[in-house]
Amino acid sequence: MTILFTICGRAGSKGLAAKNLKTFHGFPLIAYTLAAMDLFKEQSSHQIDVALNTDSKELQKTIEDYPDVLLIDRKKEHATDTASKMAVIRDTYLQAKKIRQKEYDYVIDLDLTSPLRTVQDIFKLIEKKKEHPELDVVFSVVESRRNPFFNMVKEEGNSVSLVNASTFTSRQQAPAIYDMNASMYLYDPKFLQENEYIFNGNCGVIQMQDYMVLDIDSEEDFKWMEYIYVKLLEEEGIQDIYSHIPKMTIFSAE
């Protein structure tokens, strides 16, 4: 099986300036995503390509000595606040397909600002697609702490009502609700090439551990993630990623 991994990181960010260039516990933030991909490659028999789509020269420079990453310049129309990430992933796929001159079975995007993942999470993503080949997209989620059928409200004039009207008297009675944590997306290449919106297709999910921070969108997110990471290093899957980073030549001198 041939898999294209994509990493997308633009130069500008409204929430946290230059967040893609942050140093996280001694290593560039992107190192955690690359280490996850590298470990997956070691532990699987799949053929792997990795492509970074960015308009940041600094981000390109961070990994310029990592020969396995295909660098793709982000198009101007994809470098705005309103640009769809799916469009960026599609363009990355089409360019990689042309440059590498090969077909891909899956396209998997790992979010650069969501470093709290394990190699096993990636395997789970792929297994979900294998078990359900009819799925066009598989993405990662965590269990939501709030439920629109039970304890989320919306304003209607001078009063509020449940987001989804119901008569449930306990959260346990309500349907299970999940937050999309944006960490991982697996696309069927044909669907990716022909569609603009993930929910135009058949979607499946895999549940990840809830680390309390979905991604890094603010300085507060970043500080909190740094704080809890010390504790998370006691977990084997997280420790595996962190320990692997110095073994990658590009980051050994960081």
From TrEMBL:
One Pfam family linked to the record: CTP_transf_3
Domain of life from the UniProt record: Bacteria
Entry keyword Transferase: yes
Enzyme class, spelled out: transferase
Molecular-function annotations in GO: nucleotidyltransferase activity
Entry's EC annotation: 2.7.7.-
Protein name: Acylneuraminate cytidylyltransferase family protein
InterPro entries, A to Z: CMP-NeuNAc_synthase (IPR050793), Cytidylyl_trans (IPR003329), Nucleotide-diphossugar_trans (IPR029044)
The entry's keywords: Nucleotidyltransferase, Transferase
Keyword Acetylation: no
